[in-house]
Amino acid sequence: MPAAVARYTVTSPTMPLAMPGKSQHLPLAAGKPIPYRRAAISPPSAGSSVNTSAVPSLTSGSYAGSAFGDHDRSDSGAHGVDLLDMMSSRLSTAIDPLPLDRSLARQAQTSGELNAKQRELAELHAMAQRRMKSTRANLTDGIKAAKDVRKDLEWTQKRVSSLNAKAAKKYPIAYKAASARYPSQIDC
């Protein structure tokens, strides 16, 4: 007959399940703790009853033995309890989904605002590129027009200088009188 097993349950407000500590979980045999060992079990065969839940039920027959060897399952106190149902019920009461929903909504709203700003920046960038292109074209045209005006002014200056030289040779007295009356602003 197995010795009496002392079991303690420690509850913590941060954990949804009461988890026993490791030292409280090991049974004692004649005053000495039984060393912890893993149970090597094989998965159930296809012909046997197969549990399809993600977490196996404590009442299913697919687990033979435990971490401490074979013992009477009525001692465990979990007879007839489905672990998946118990976990889902405890998690549904432990987690308040309202703050999560609010943060998810805020995240979606922020993501939408960010996408809108990104599209707006892309449009502004495209508009700036178009303006830059037209400004460069205008600048190129302006530089070309300035070169043409300079060329025309140089030609005009040469023409006026040659006409002044011809007038000074042909009409020296009248040219001196006109030069004294209207002095030249540009030195040749």
How is this structure best described in words?
The protein is mostly helical and 188 residues long. Helix 3 packs across helix 4. It contains four helices and two strands; from the N terminus they run αββααα. A hairpin with a 2-residue loop joins strand 1 and strand 2 (32-33). The model is unreliable at 60-75 (pLDDT under 50). The protein starts with 21 loop residues before the first helix and ends in a 7-residue tail after the last helix. The chain has a two-stranded antiparallel ribbon with strand order 1-2.
* Strand order within the widest beta sheet: 1-2
Apparent shape: rod-shaped
Strand content: under 5%
Number of helices: 4
Tell me the radius of gyration. 50 Å
Largest β sheet strand count, sense and barrel closure: 2 strands, antiparallel
> Averaging pLDDT over every residue, what do you get?
74
As residue ranges, the low-confidence spans are 60-75
In whole angstroms, the N-to-C terminal distance is 132 Å
Q: Kindly state the number of beta strands.
A: 2
Order of helices and strands: HEEHHH
Helix content: 40-55%
The computed structural class is: mainly alpha
Short descriptors:
188 residues; single chain; two-stranded antiparallel ribbon
Layout of helices and strands:
Blueprint: H1 22-25, E1 28-29, E2 32-33, H2 83-94, H3 97-170, H4 172-181
Antiparallel strand pairs: 1-2
Helix pairs in contact: 3-4
Quick summary of this structure?
53% of the residues lie in helices and 2% in strands.
